[in-house]
Amino acid sequence: MNLHTYFRSSASFRVRIVLNLKNQAYQAIPVHMLRDGGEQHSPAYRAINPLGLVPALETDEGPVLTQSIAICEFLEETYPEPRLLPADRFERAWVRSLCNVIACDIHPINNLRVLKYLKTELGHSEEEKTAWYRHWIVTGLEAIEKMIGDRAGQYCLGDSITLADAFLVPQVWNALRFECPLDRFPTIATVYENAMALEAVKLAQPSAQPDAE
Amino acid sequence: MNLHTYFRSSASFRVRIVLNLKNQAYQAIPVHMLRDGGEQHSPAYRAINPLGLVPALETDEGPVLTQSIAICEFLEETYPEPRLLPADRFERAWVRSLCNVIACDIHPINNLRVLKYLKTELGHSEEEKTAWYRHWIVTGLEAIEKMIGDRAGQYCLGDSITLADAFLVPQVWNALRFECPLDRFPTIATVYENAMALEAVKLAQPSAQPDAE
Q1: What is the mean pLDDT of residues A42-70?
Q2: Residue-wise over B60-83: b if at least 16 C-beta within 10 A, else e?
Q3: What number of other Cβ atoms are within 10 A of residue B96's Cβ?
Q4: Which of residues 82-111 of B touch A (CB under 8 A)?
Q5: pLDDT 10s digits, A97-127
Q6: Dihedral sign, CA of B22, B9, A121, A129?
Q7: Which residues of B fall within a CB distance of 8 Å from A100?
Q8: Which residues does A165 contact at the CB level (< 8 Å), separation at least 6?
């Protein structure tokens, strides 16, 4: 499989974690999101993924897969072991809900293109951009801390790693990068530490990528 | 089932469509997102959904379900007929990807709370807010028009209604509300019209809700 990825892309990071947890080898094809106005917008890349976003996954069997949630669901269906969605449908809904808090309520608002719009179209300063970033991350992490407070064990849902962890880790990694302290989120901090200790997660982190800077 | 909903909430609209398509009766419990600083933030509502967002679905069997994607996946698993995710796993990934373009790439950036932040925290005018809104909607609809261009029939994926339509309709409804013309998106316009002709969709639209204004 070929994964079109950018080392710092949080959505790519999620998919890398899932591929590693499922022991699926893949070839990383870096797409530099800042070089030349963003390689994801190049005609060559748009021919692979017309959305002009990473990640995109090329399998040996069918059309290119896009959008991290859809890719992770596909990987869960195609490589069921180890399972990353619980067997119980209420628990499964809970895990998906947590993924969505990250993938819908936090990440898109702090995405590169949105920050760029704030700066270039609306003329905001670095400080205002950072305040924006932190505001949405803190709002989201508060919600997650509440959600996992009484359900977390080693990981978000008890002691089994799930898609929720694969989504949480990259978001926390981003938060730390923007120097958002985790003191108010002790459960999140513990889960993050436990997940980051796993080889599959460690190998998926930005600094371990071939295109890391 | 009790669905906590706001007539204009696009995420609630998605779930209402899915419940209707699956012939599942539910009780709508309106949560007024503008009254008194937003009823979704009230302690009473937060006791039901700590995320302070709509929709939230209370079933008779288990804990409250949150986040529209997670709720729709739950409904698909619990009430498999009529199926809203295709049997083929590549087609399923495609449908989910389209849902994610809407639920992750368009909607969150134009959400009420984000527009509010632009106005109150960053001091932007109505014009700037509207320009922001239209920018993200047009970017997203361009991507969708490309995606469905050669796959759509009556609906996004051929002639069977899927989750993709349940997500697209509310987004287009929003676009029209903000007077974004659909001329450049002929496939989207056709799919929207066909889906809106269905009784299940018509009954789910904002103007048909008990809390409609």
Answers
A1: 92
A2: eeeebbbbbbbbbbbbbeebeeee
A3: 28
A4: 89-90, 92-94, 96-97, 99-101, 103-105, 107-109
A5: 999 999 999 999 998 889 999 999 999 999 9
A6: negative
A7: 67-70, 103
A8: A17, A155, A156, A191, A195, A201
Task: For residue A62, give the DSSP letter.
Answer: S
In chain B, the residue whose alpha carbon lies closest to the alpha carbon of A128 is B122
Tens of pLDDT, residue by residue over B91-124, are: 999 999 999 999 999 999 998 889 999 999 999 9
Place of tokens 């009254």: B35
Q: A70: which chain B residues are within 8 Å (Cβ-Cβ)?
A: 93-94, 96-97, 99-100
Instruction: Say which DSSP state A82 is in.
Output: S
Taken in order B115, B118, B120, B121, the sign of the CA dihedral is positive
Residues in A closer than 8 angstroms to B124, CB to CB, are: 122
Q: Model confidence over A63-81: pLDDT tens digits? A: 999 999 999 999 999 999 9
Query: What are the DSSP calls for B182-201, one per residue?
Result: -TT-HHHHHHHHHHHTSHHH
Closest CA to A4 of A65, A54, A69, A78: A54
The domains found in chain B, sorted by start residue, are 2-82+201-208 (3.40.30.10), 89-198 (1.20.1050.10)
Side chain identity at residue B60, one-letter code: D
Q: Does A115 touch chain B (CB under 8 A)?
A: no
How far apart CA B38 and CA A189 sit, in angstroms, is: 30
